[in-house]
Amino acid sequence: MNAAAESDASVGLRERVRYLCAACRQVFGMPDYERYLTHAAQRHPGAPVLTRSDFFVQAIERKYGKGGARCC
Question: What gap in Å lies between CA 42 and CA 48, rounded to an integer?
Fold first, then answer.
């Protein structure tokens, strides 16, 4: 296998791992920043996007803050 083929194979593997991680986050209800960025670019072009840390703060507040869905 030549270097170009190995590079293509590693890129394909990285994409599959990235997809698998995103699917696991979705199943377990974990926020997915990359998915948020994709959504924001497609649905809200030109609008400012949250930083990674602000996104996670907002996700935690939405899940556990006052007025949010709670299990107890």
Answer: 13
Tell me the C-alpha distance between 65 and 72, whole Å: 12
Nearest residue to 24 via CA among 14, 13, 33, 32: 32
DSSP collapsed to 3 states, the chain: CCHHHHHHHHHHHHHHHHHHHHHHHHHCCCCCHHHHHHHHHHHCCCCCCCCHHHHHHHHHHHHHCCCCCCCC
Q: What is the pLDDT of residues 30-41, one digit of tens each?
A: 788 888 999 999
Q: What whole-number distance in Å separates Cα of residue 64 and Cα of residue 71?
A: 9
Does this model's pTM top 0.70? no
